[in-house]
Every structure is written in C-alpha cells, then in structure tokens.
Specification:
This is UPF0735 ACT domain-containing protein H8695_09895. The protein is of the alpha+beta class and about 150 residues long. The protein has five helices and four strands; from the N terminus they run αααβαββαβ.
C-alpha cells in the first residue's frame, strides 16, 4: 500500500534547527558551494545521518516543486538594457524560459511576465526572487503563478 503524503506549511522559526540545517546543506550542494555531502554537513554543523534521515522530507516552501513551471510578474523601469539584464540573470542561473511577455511601457515602467521551467535551475526560488529584485531597474518582483 502506497503511503499518503501530507504536507504542512510551517513558519521556520518554530521548526527544529536540524530541519533548517538540512535545507541549507541541500542548498550548498545544489549551488556548488560544497562539493560533497561530507563537506556540506561539516559546514552546516549536522551529522550525515541527520542529513540522510530528513533530506527527502524537508524542503523550502518554493523548492518542493522542482521541475515545475513558475511565473513571475516583474515591473521594470523603461531604460535600455534592463530587460537584457533580467534575461541574462535567468540564463546565468540555468532557468529555462518558457514564455516572456513585456507590456508597452507606460509612465516610464513596463510589466514583464516570465514563465520558467525549474528543472535545471541552479538556485531556489527565494534566492531567484531576491536576485531578480536586485537587477538594476527592477521595481517589483513577485511570483504570480505555479504549476
């Protein structure tokens, strides 16, 4: 009989510290900051057994849906090169852009809608949103859809 999965959305401040450390260990491995599991668990301060016990069960809110499509709505200043920088960031982080649409600029701003496939992405969605918000000319970044 297949086990039924139940998921809970929990504020991180009430979680046991080990769960946050498992997530950080996974992030270090995913981004290449740590080359091996041994190195990653040593850097985050957890045991290998704790990592293996929880690695398939603990995920950041956005990471659970790897290999999914995420849509961003981004408000940009109407300046030369801003959209180019945005697309370059998606490329640098190995995001597969499925669709991109920009509205006609109005009052010096334009809204861009970008849908990406997350399968080969080299970061998590939280970090991606922060990186997008730091693009010169980005005014607002939000996740507007997930599949």
């Amino acid at each position: 009989m297949e086990r039924e999965h139940k998921f809970y959305l929990v504020e991180s401040s009430v979680l046991p510290r080990v769960f946050k450390k498992v997530v950080e260990t996974k992030r270090r491995l995913q981004t290449g900051k740590s080359k091996t599991i041994n190195e990653a668990v040593r850097e985050t301060g957890i045991s290998r057994s704790a990592y293996y016990k929880y690695k398939d069960y603990v995920f950041p809110f956005y990471d659970k849906d790897k290999d999914k499509i995420i849509t961003f709505t981004i408000v940009l200043r109407d300046e030369p090169g801003v959209l180019h920088q945005l697309v370059g960031l998606f490329s640098k982080l190995k995001c597969n852009i499925m669709t991109i649409n920009q509205s006609i600029p109005n009052n010096g701003v334009a809204t861009v809608t970008v849908s990406i496939e997350t399968g080969s992405m080299k970061t998590d969605v939280d970090a991606l949103v922060k990186s997008l918000a730091n693009v010169r000319g980005a005014i607002e970044v939000k996740v507007s859809g997930r599949e």
